[in-house]
Design a protein that fits this description.
The protein has about 425 residues and is mainly alpha-helical. About 45% of the residues lie in helices and about 10% in strands. The strands form three sheets. A three-stranded antiparallel beta sheet has the order 1-5-9. Strands 2-3-8 form a three-stranded antiparallel beta sheet. Helix 5 runs antiparallel to helix 6 and helix 10 crosses helix 11. It comes from Aspergillus cavernicola.
């Protein structure tokens, strides 16, 4: 009921736009693909103590929410009417936003999202364990949006915005150096103003991820909830760095048995069951990626296995009508080398998609082989095979024989092309 009241309170029934787009000028120093190279899925974690307003219908920045019902117009695009003075101001606002340093004299109209699921999950720990927040896990929400449902210009990568404004603020230049380094980049993306997300997102509580130790069962390197206790600055970025080293970049990867992996996949299934059906497959990819690159134990796979527990899991639970929608070309995973968690997501998208099509091809090839064997038996091993060896002047029979040979030639050509395609 409280959520409904909040939605009604913050919903403007006027003709205001559903989003405030970034509209950079030609000389903005943004990369040419900055507005287009946006991950399909972005995450955002909020608690009752987060800046701005986020609910089932809207995400409002701190500045946009502060201006509600004041009679003042909503803040404008940060690229509007740029001059040197405004560029300095935007650079300072961007720095303060990225460093969590609020300023009552400068309106922060930015909203942060991340492409990194482990970064978002660690932020749930941070909010829950922080003395400045300390919200119950039930009150901390993980939002997921599908960026393909929003217009071009709704989102921009933090580094692209930093590149556009760092010459106007020394502090922002320092952040640029850190985020371009090998360790502290976490796939942050920004929107601005008010963004209508109704019907284009999913949301789950932190409790639904931690209940029954789901997150730890999925990846034991996540710490148990509450183990840190309350503190002013709970670990966040450093925990993500630790996870990256232990889960994806370790040279001593644990080889799990098939049974162990199935236990972890069961936790994934329990988590994604909290999402609507069409979201379960893509989000299962993200959560399965948290398992890391551990493979089945050697005693379970001597190099002769014709299946993989991950592939079998996706085929049994999710693959079907969604496969076309979520092929690698429109999943769009942005995976820089500094984000191994995203590299694993990208690998899984490709591998699961390829497994699906290879198995369809195997089914068709098996059926084709069966038919060719039947033809072989009919023509070669039949008691009446001698009738095919005699020349026949009948034009219809001659033409039928030519058609069969032509079809067999086509089959041979197609077999060669298919072999090349899967080699």
């Amino acid at each position: 009921m409280n959520d409904l009241v909040e939605i009604m309170r913050t919903t403007d029934l006027s003709d205001k736009p559903d989003e405030l787009l970034f509209n950079p000028p030609a000389n903005s120093r943004l990369a040419t693909d900055a507005l287009d190279n946006i991950p399909r899925y972005l995450f955002r974690v909020v608690s009752p103590h987060s800046d701005g307003i986020t609910n089932e219908a809207w995400v409002h920045s701190k500045a946009a929410s502060n201006r509600m019902n004041t009679g003042f117009p909503p803040p404008e695009d940060i690229f509007s009417n740029l001059d040197t003075q405004k560029q300095r101001m935007i650079a300072e606002i961007l720095y303060l936003h990225l460093k969590w340093k609020g300023d009552d004299y400068l309106e922060d109209n930015l909203v942060s999202w991340t492409s990194s699921l482990p970064f978002a999950l660690q932020y749930i720990y941070y909010r829950h364990e922080s003395n400045k927040d300390g919200s119950d896990l039930e009150d901390i929400k993980l939002y997921v949006i599908d960026t393909t449902k929003f217009p071009r210009g709704t989102f921009l990568r933090d580094l692209d915005l930093i590149n556009a404004f760092y010459p106007f603020d020394k502090n922002l230049e320092n952040i640029r150096g850190m985020r371009r380094g090998p360790t502290y980049y976490f796939g942050e993306y920004l929107s601005q103003g008010s963004l209508k997300i109704q019907g284009m997102h999913q949301v789950v509580s932190g409790a639904s991820l931690f209940d029954q130790n789901r997150l730890q069962r999925l990846q034991p390197q996540f710490k148990a909830k509450g183990i840190q206790g309350r503190s002013q600055w709970p670990p966040w970025a450093t925990e993500v760095v630790r996870l990256r080293k232990g889960v994806w970049n370790s040279s001593n990867q644990v080889r799990l048995s098939s049974a162990d992996i199935w236990d972890r996949l069961k936790a994934v299934e329990e988590i994604v069951d909290h999402f609507e059906p069409r979201w379960r497959y893509p989000l299962a990819i993200y959560f399965v990626a948290l398992i890391g690159r551990e493979s089945v134990a050697k005693e379970d796979d001597e190099g002769t296995a014709d299946d993989n527990v991950f592939f079998a899991f996706f085929r049994s639970k999710f693959i079907g009508g969604q496969q076309k929608e979520f092929n690698p070309s429109n999943f769009n995973v942005v995976a820089p080398s500094t984000m191994p968690e995203m590299t694993r997501v990208k690998e899984l998208v490709r591998e699961v998609h390829k497994d699906y099509h290879l198995r369809k091809a195997l089914s068709l090839a098996t059926e084709a082989e069966k038919k060719m064997r039947n033809l072989h038996i009919q023509l070669i091993h039949s008691e009446d095979r001698s009738v095919f060896l005699e020349d026949d002047p009948n034009e219809v029979l001659v033409r039928a024989g030519k058609i069969i040979r032509s079809r067999l030639k086509t089959i041979r050509m197609l077999r060669k092309k298919v072999t090349q395609a899967i080699s």
